[in-house]
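---------- Forwarded message ----------

FYI, see the Acetyl xylan esterase record below. Original note from H. follows.
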Amino acid sequence: MPAFDLPWEDLKRYRPDLQEPAGFDEFWHDTLKEAAQPEVLVSAHPVATGLRLTDTWDVTFRGFGGDPVRAWFSRPAGVREPLPAVVEYAGYGRGRGLPHERLTWVNAGYAHLLMDNRGQGDQYGNGGATPDPHSTAPGGPGPVVRGLLSPRDHHYRRLVTDAVRAVAAVRALPGVDGSRVAAVGNSQGGGLALAVAGLVPDLAALLVTAPFLCGIRRALDLTDASPYGEITAYLSVHRGAERAAYDTLAHLEGISFARRAHAPAHFGVGLRDTVCPPSGAYGAFNRYAELSGADPRKEIHAYPFNGHEGGDAVHVRRQLDWLKGVLESD
């Protein structure tokens, strides 16, 4: 697929206008307040994985509505001192899978929490273990169109709340330095990590690649690839529902979350990405922290000949080097 979004030189300067809902901040303040519970952790049980150099726990914490959300928590075996932590969010349609699947951050010396996606896990990967008991509002079968006609009913209101609560959960686990917690994600996971950065003011770092839900209205005009294509398909059947859908999606806009962020940030983007168009990532990067009063360290790496895979392992190496510099600097 050839490059299809704005030219790279234009992307570097791209600062899109937003149709931000007047009650955006109140909506998320009230949502998170409703989810607040004195004890975020429900349980943490050690599990046998066959790995000698990694210790892993099956964690359950309270997310949206107090619902139980599952996660894998891993640490380098035999390390006793408190470690900085990476909270990772999985991609669209994927669950937490199996505990030995994602070992990069543990091998780099971090505590690692991989959050399950409620109501997802059946499209690829190795499954999930967190149902979504609230998924009854009008909408299509895919997560992005569940409850599309109301921001209070939408699937991502619950999933973003879970993502914020995951940071509280990792801080409550033993052997974690709660002052050094990073949010990490790719695609849907990148959109969740970006939302967390906008909603958790004391996050220590953000690493996001190919973020979903950034520049949503433009993405709907540019691509029919899933997940955006699921929204297009829904609206092609439910003619006249656009206004309600656009209002809901505006409450989930990643660029709006980016504007409110404080943490140092590391972005990655493939310029031929037809799943999450690169203008969304650049819009979030260029408007990052503009409302928070912070002036965080930030950088973005573009891969002109890559699509949704971005820089792949090359980019992960850059992430490792950058995060070490942020979390381990004096």
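H. also flagged this: The mean pLDDT is 96.
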